[in-house]
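User: I'm new to structure prediction. If I give you an amino acid sequence, what do you actually give back? Let's try with this one:
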Amino acid sequence: MFTFLLVVHAIIAALLVTVILMQKSEGGGLTTGGSPSGLMSARGAADFLTRATAVLAGLFIAMSIALAVIAANRGANSIDTSLARPTTPPPAASAPANPAADPIGNLTGADNGAVPLAR
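Assistant: Good question. You get back a string of structure tokens that encode the predicted 3D arrangement of the chain. For your 119 residues, that looks like this:
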């Protein structure tokens, strides 16, 4: 159902772009006029294209809202988690066996002949 509505939405978008580009503006549109009488006269075509633009724009907005609501209610199983970060934290670095010891080593000079540092 969602895919069908998405295809209909794409068709509406393409029609909307086409109708907008067909309208005559200061620089001219994609078309350069029409037959001199009937619906496709210059005035008739402008009225038709203006109405068609309004209808297609309304359909486009309504379909956008409907697709957003449907997509929000589809469920969590359709979310792509292939790039998600792992939920377990990385292993912590091993702590020193004696945290009270000097991080550089035994600098007290006891039993190893090391020269004590002046502090």
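You can read the tokens as a compact description of the fold. Here is one thing that stands out. The two ends are 77 Å apart (CA to CA).
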